[in-house]
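For the sake of clarity, the format in which proteins appear in this thesis is described at this point. The record quoted next illustrates the convention:

___
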Amino acid sequence: MTDQELEILLTERVKTFDLKKTAFDTLDKILSDNSDDKDFLCGFEQNEIKPVFDKFEYHIDRRHGGSIIRTRIGLYVESQNWLDNLEPIGYYELEANLNGKVVDDWFVIEKEKYLKDLGIISHFQSMNEKLPIEYLKRNHIQYEFVSYVSMVGTLFVSKLFEGTGRFIIRANSNLETVESKNFDQGYLKEARKFLKMTSLYLTTNNLVTYNLKNELTENKNCG
């Protein structure tokens, strides 16, 4: 049997079982059953996500378990920076045995929407690369500001957005008290940029209460 003949045989087999349709139908049901769970899609809206058939895979003579056919549907969002303007954020996989009987499935979201949009991890790293190590000592006047900024990042990653906004305000209030002249200017520039960027994201995407949004908007250092 030639490679081409084998490929045709395997392709016809998955068509016979209609595994692609089964995978899409099951994915639709998963999304429908979890439509009221705001955390299920890690911040993404269902209408943002584009399911695209990626591939079939045959796994033969596996070390654990029997042979399977795996159907993979990629989950994508639109992005001009990716091939075909589609950025992968997760996938759904359906596993069936060689007789077409479904034996398992997996739904995975690999990216958090807010972390993806803001790229907070890279900004955090860039800022902390310029952090003078002595600012982490309690007896330094910069310690409180550094602690507040760190809490902003921690709370944002934890999706506690109201708390994030509150600590942005505390950080800027402390900065007014301590005065910017007492900070390393390289670090301070990055910290201010981080606070303003995070504040703008919270208010633009309506992730905080109305009153806090007004506080962040009215504070010239926050937005």
Observations:
- The helical segments are 3-17, 19-33, 113-118, 120-128, 143-157, 161-178, 185-204, 210-218.
- The longest strand covers residues 86-97.
- The CA atoms of residues 142 and 182 lie 8 Å apart.
